[in-house]
Design the sequence.
């Protein structure tokens, strides 16, 4: 079982849900650091000879299309992080659909091939957004990695499903890759990305990675370009958020290098190509996962048995 390595390609000011989070209309006027930081990540990946999945924010792709082209040229998978980095549970189903579709089209225009994968901002899909999967299918996505199956500040949706699973019927559906968690004292916990990766010591992360791999699940690592840039500007915020957003920034690059040296990593797309049969065979209870929304496409998908 391999690990999957991913980058959410956004800038330092895309920290979510703060009074100081700048509005989309201001982004063009802020000093950007994503070009430099993402470029450095690409160098690390080349040095380690690995391919990863890059979930580009549509806004970043539009402003810096050469970053998307360069990731694609180096053999990485280009995927979508939505357009404007809005929380799913703060959007209407239609607004979410338009945001997800806009970023997909921007990326497809740049790389000239279909974009299969999606990850929402802040893993902000939850039980109050049951339309999420149907809207992604409608927008043409084939897989998603947005569900955080445990307690979390933004979102969190624990349905007891921790391994990748298939949602839908034999002809139409979506593969969901929940963010990797492992049970610690009965609570699903993540050690493998963002603040979790920064906070925990490398040895613990390695042990937890081995534990998950032994259970037959892939470990999904994720980083943001700003996390290897300890000097990036800070947004004003309270102490608790400051800790979560900026703890151990100085150690992240070394941790990323260590994980890439210790574990075999691949892209979502390559993982799917190798494991699609296994995932579909192991998937259960599609109705419970999709949730009923009367008259919607979700209901149609949920009523179908999982393809076996
Ligand atoms: Zn993000």
Sequence:
């Amino acid at each position: 079982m391999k690990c999957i390595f991913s980058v959410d390609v956004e800038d330092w000011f895309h920290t979510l849900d703060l009074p100081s989070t700048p509005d989309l209309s201001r982004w063009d006027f802020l000093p950007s650091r994503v070009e430099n930081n993402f470029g450095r990540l690409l160098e690390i990946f080349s040095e380690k000879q690995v391919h990863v999945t890059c979930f580009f924010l549509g806004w970043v792709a539009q402003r810096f299309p050469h970053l998307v082209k360069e990731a694609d040229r180096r053999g990485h998978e280009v995927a979508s992080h939505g357009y404007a980095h809005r929380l799913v549970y703060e959007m209407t189903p239609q607004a979410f659909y338009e945001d997800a579709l806009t970023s997909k089209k921007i990326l497809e225009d740049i790389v000239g091939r279909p974009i299969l994968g999606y990850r929402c901002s802040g893993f902000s899909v939850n039980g109050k957004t049951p339309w999420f999967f149907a809207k992604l299918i409608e927008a043409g996505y084939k897989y998603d990695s947005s569900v955080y199956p445990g307690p979390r500040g933004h979102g969190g949706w624990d349905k007891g499903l921790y391994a990748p699973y298939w949602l839908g019927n034999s002809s139409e559906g979506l593969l969901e890759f929940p963010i990797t968690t492992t049970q610690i004292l009965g609570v699903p916990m993540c050690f493998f990305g963002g603040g979790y990766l920064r906070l925990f010591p490398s040895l613990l992360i390695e042990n937890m990675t081995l534990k998950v791999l032994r259970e037959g699940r892939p470990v999904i690592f994720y980083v943001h370009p700003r996390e290897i840039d300890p000097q990036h500007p800070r947004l004003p915020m309270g102490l608790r958020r400051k800790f979560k957003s900026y703890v151990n920034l100085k150690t992240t690059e070394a941790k990323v290098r260590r994980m890439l040296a210790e574990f075999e990593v691949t892209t979502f797309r390559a993982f799917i190509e190798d494991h699609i049969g296994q995932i579909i065979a192991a998937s259960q209870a599609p109705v419970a996962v999709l949730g009923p929304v009367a008259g919607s496409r979700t209901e149609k998908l949920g009523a179908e048995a999982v393809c076996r």
Remarks:
- The pocket of zinc ion is lined by residues 8, 10, 14, 81, 85, 121 (CB under 6 Å).
